[in-house]
Automatic annotation (TrEMBL):
Large ribosomal subunit protein uL15/eL18 domain ranges (all copies): 100-169
InterPro entries reported for this sequence: Ribosomal_uL15, Ribosomal_uL15/eL18, Ribosomal_uL15/eL18_sf, Ribosomal_uL15_bac-type
Family (UniProt): Belongs to the universal ribosomal protein uL15 family.
Organism the protein comes from: Emiliania huxleyi (strain CCMP1516)
GO (cellular component) term, any one: mitochondrial large ribosomal subunit
Record region (Disordered): 19-72
Gene Ontology BP term (one): translation
Biased composition (Gly residues): 41-53
Stated name of the protein: Large ribosomal subunit protein uL15/eL18 domain-containing protein
Keywords: Ribonucleoprotein, Ribosomal protein
Length: 181
């Protein structure tokens, strides 16, 4: 059925009524028949079926695998390895948005700190990275009793926050929920 049917233009029936994924068909002339190979010389693809007379690519079964270069070292082995390929835990690098401990000084004593609170206080700038890591800085932390929520902490940042009576709540990188320590 055509999308706009001129015959039912004035009727109340919608034009797309009988149209769904099961009733679609190809436009006339757009689809070609598959070549039937090996069915006689008069069929056009008989005898060698268009594969030539001899050689590895003319044999039955599969030809060479993707990336095979005839025995020379293939491109995927000539190039150096780099982070992220092949995939897996040993080949991935987690990128964090860095939050310095000195940025926490702009908040009040006893505050609950997360990335949204730091953005509201203009202590950090907006970032595309989803994960946050609190790191130590040259300027020391002066605010006490902070509850800091982040995806990771350096040991120096954790020690500095906990020395002033605060707590470090580590978040799961996938769900954002606190991780049970």
């Amino acid at each position: 059925m055509r999308v706009f049917d001129w015959k039912t233009r004035g009727s109340e029936a919608p034009a797309l009524e009988g149209l769904d994924l099961g009733s679609l068909s190809k436009s006339p002339g757009s689809a070609h028949r598959a070549a039937r190979k090996g069915r006689g010389i008069s069929a056009g693809q008989g005898a060698t079926c268009g594969f030539g007379t001899r050689g590895q690519k003319s044999r039955s079964g599969h030809s060479t695998r993707p990336g095979f270069e005839g025995g020379q070292i293939p491109l995927y082995r000539r190039l150096p390895k780099f982070v992220g390929r092949p995939t897996g835990p040993g080949h991935t690098k987690t990128e964090y948005e860095i939050i310095k401990v000195s940025a926490l000084n702009q908040l009040d004593d006893g505050a609950e700190v997360d990335y949204a609170a730091l953005l509201a206080a203009r202590a950090v700038s907006k970032s595309k990275r989803k994960l946050n890591k609190v790191v130590g800085a040259a300027d020391k932390l002066t605010v006490k009793n902070l509850k800091v929520r982040a995806h990771a902490f350096t040991s120096s940042a954790r020690a500095e926050i906990e020395a002033l009576g605060g707590s470090c709540i580590e978040l799961s990188p996938t769900t954002g929920e606190p991780v049970a320590a």
